[in-house]
């Protein structure tokens, strides 16, 4: 209808910006001071594609200027959320740490995400039986498995970020954590996925190779020993 209010919002179900229709509104005015009021406005938006609903909460008060409203959406938008990737040969303990690090990042718990990534890196080194008095030595030991030295260099940068998060409780930037996750995923892909897929490909190629034909002497011998009916 022409009088329906519409708005472009990111839809968690459609995974993209879609048109939403306004289905309901509510405004609450709070505060005991008549000269200073706080307002909470609620709006229910329905996606025109999948029909999933989103609650929009807008807060403002008399001290705010236009455009300074605090807007939140429920459920929270997942537009910038990261998804876990499947790794066929990753051990359950390492997979659990990896998933928790991603979940912390999506919840904006950046210190916990950095600590989880550091624990995951320690776990990978332990799984590969790399010995050393500290994580720096263990990371250097990964060169045995990684022909690309850039990954080693990036892992050392990530180690420093983890140190700050653990010892100084200094929250890293979201871009730093996202990059660290990308580096760890490159490492997991190289150590646990590419080798597994390569071995699968080798087995597939072996199974498709034609069996060698029997020699003429072998065929003759079979015919010689085969009794007549």
- Uncertain segments are none
The overall number of domains is 2
Helical segment count: 6
Helix content: 40-55%
Proportion of beta-strand residues: 15-25%
What topology does this entry show?
Elements: E1 6-11, E2 16-30, E3 38-47, E4 53-61, E5 70-74, H1 92-106, H2 110-127, H3 135-141, H4 149-167, H5 174-208, H6 216-225
Antiparallel strand pairs: 1-2, 2-3, 3-4, 4-5
Helix pairs in contact: 1-2, 2-4, 2-5, 3-4, 4-5
Key phrases:
single chain, 2 domains, five-stranded antiparallel sheet, alpha+beta, elongated, 229 residues
How would you characterize this protein structure?
The protein has about 230 residues and is an alpha+beta fold. It folds into two domains: about 5-75; about 90-200, no CATH class. It has helices spanning about 90-105, 110-125, 135-140, 150-165, 175-210, 215-225; strands at about 5-10, 15-30, 40-45, 55-60, 70-75. A five-stranded antiparallel β-sheet has the order 1-2-3-4-5, with no helix packed on it. The longest helix is centred in the C-terminal third of the chain and has 35 residues, at about 175-210. The N and C termini lie far apart (about 90 Å).
